[in-house]
Amino acid sequence: MNYKELLAQAAELDRQIAAARETEAAAALAEIKTKIADFGFTVEDVFSAKKTRKLRELSGPRYRDPDTGATWSGMGREPLWIKGKDREAFSIMGNLFDA
After folding, report:
1. Half-sphere exposure of residue 50, counting CA atoms within 13 Å on the CB side?
2. d(CA 75, CA 65)
3. What is the pLDDT of residues 52-68, one digit of tens each?
4. What's the rounded Cα separation, in Å, for the pair 72 and 30?
5. pLDDT exceeds 80 at position 71
6. Are 82 and 72 in contact (CB under 8 A)?
């Protein structure tokens, strides 16, 4: 086979793929519509994004860098200024009681 013949085959396959997709998509959509009607689903039932995870309460800063004043809540990646160090030394609550 030469290049032009392969291109012609590719074009024919693309046409067949598009036709098969159209036929199968129409059948799938008809089935979905039937299921929605059978069970009485609403748009919200079908398309709503239910959140399964509870969102954490927003907490204020728990640690402060005395040099820059930068704060960190203790959640997520450790900032470089506290990484590998004793967190108690940077605790905001601990500092409130020292005064």
Report:
1. 4
2. 15
3. 555 555 678 899 999 99
4. 53
5. yes
6. yes
